[in-house]
Amino acid sequence: MQFEFFPSRTLTFYLARMFIVRIFAVLVMLVLVLMMLDLLATSGEILSVEGNGQAELWTYALLRIPQLIARFLPYSVLLATIITLVTLNQNSEVIAMKAAGLSAHQVLAPLLLTAAMVSVVSFGFNERVVTRSTATLKAWEAAEYGPVPEHSEVRANVYLTDGTSVLTAANMSGTGSNITMRDVTWYSRSDAGMILTQVRAARATYAAPGWKLEEAERFDVGTAQTQELPELVVGRELTPDKIELDTVDPDTQPFWSLSDSIAAYEAVGRRTAELRAKWWHKLSGPLSAFLMPLLGAIAAFGLARSGQLFLRAIIGMALGFAYFVIDNAALAMGNFGGYPPFLAAWAPFFLFLLVGETVLVRTEE
Fold first, then answer.
1. What distance in Å separates the CA atoms of residue 77 and residue 83, rounded to the nearest whole number?
2. Signal peptide: which range, if any (predicted)?
3. Which of 3, 220, 342, 357 makes the best surface tag, with the fewest CB within 10 Å?
4. Rounded Cα gap, residues 79 and 205, in angstroms
């Protein structure tokens, strides 16, 4: 019996290299297929804008691919785990390793180490690349695929409240007194929540106080009359500081910036459960790749000639996909306060860590 976690350097490099090649191959396959399907669904909207062409399609693809990589990298690790372990089992390599005195955990050790490295790379990629591409893509979609926003700080689909009244904007750029909103709509409502007037404008800037709507069109609900106004100031209680708090999007902010946003929310007594859950999930999400070799490990063991290898692969795949389902459900529960943020982000990870360890120990150790 070998007692070192990595008993053979040659075997460790052999398994790690095999595993990482399959992760990359599966990820490329998934991203290419999903990107083609995505382009089929959205290319009509992009090309319908005057002046858009092949360059804009490439721009959309370059902004969308990082999101697909971030979302499907854990799935790629799961599928690569099953492919790798099934191949090793069919070639009797697992039997040879166990005959040499390796335990099930030692057989999986190179795969777990590789998956841990993938998790670290995934975290850095998500926070440095995915957040920026997501911010730009959301703003571009809000602009209905018109001119590409120049700044990645542009925020899309802004929804702000001033008492009972509401101010919405398709996108917003800039900070402080230099904030500019486009495709703006102001809903003036009564205390009972009934809409009294609706004002639409192409652009809004800070008027200190309030927001100046330029070339506005006001519709009075009571009289059903429309009035053209060169400018109109609304939302006098909406300060730039309040707007920056109300427009925090955790998907477009990196881990370290989101920490500052949460602190700002807490300083003014705002609810932070949703932001906290997303903040914790920025850690637990990439770490899910580390779980995949453990959940797919059942495909590695058992005799290939027993006829149960395919069934074992299905069980490993089912465990992996069950994790993603429960992880998304727990995060949704955390977003509206059903679970504490830490529990919403980490409970699925630790639950399936125990499940994977239990299955591995009871069946192989």
1. 10
2. none
3. 3
4. 50
239 three-class SS:
coil
Q: Output the DSSP codes for 173-231.
A: E-SGGG-EEEEEEEEEE-TTS-EEEEEEEEEEEE-SSSEEEEEEEEEETTTTEEEEEEE
Phi-psi region of 163 (alpha: psi -120 to 50; beta: other; left: phi over 0): left
DSSP symbol at 254: -
pLDDT tens digits, one per residue of 263-304: 877 776 667 788 888 899 999 999 999 999 998 888 777 555
What average pLDDT does the chain have? 83
User: Which residues have CB under 8 Å from 327's CB, separation 6+?
Assistant: 284, 285, 288, 348, 349
Spatial contact of 274 and 334, defined as CB atoms under 8 Å apart: yes
pLDDT of residue 153: 59
**Are 199 and 213 spatial neighbours (Cβ–Cβ below 8 Å)?**
yes
Containing H/E element for 100? none
> Mapped to the 3 state alphabet, what secondary structure does 314-336 carry?
HHHHHHHHHHHHHHHHHHHHHHC
Sequence-distant (≥ 6) Cβ neighbours of residue 51 within 8 angstroms = none
Residue 139 predicted with pLDDT over 70: yes
How does DSSP classify residue 164? Answer: T
Tell me the pLDDT tens digit for each residue of 190-247. Answer: 777 678 888 888 888 887 787 888 888 888 877 878 888 888 888 777 777 666 665 6
CB hemisphere CA count around 281 (13 angstroms): 26
Mean pLDDT confidence for 252-257: 85
pLDDT tens digits for 92-129? 888 888 888 888 888 888 999 999 999 999 999 999 99
Please identify which residue in the block is written with the tokens 């001119």: 147
Q: pTM here?
A: 0.78
Structure tokens at 5: 């976690």
Find tokens 């995934």 and name the residue: 122
Q: How far apart are CA 334 and CA 343, in angstroms?
A: 8
Calpha distance 96→87 (Å, rounded): 13
For residue 143, the 8-state DSSP code is T
**Beta-bridge mates of residue 75:** none
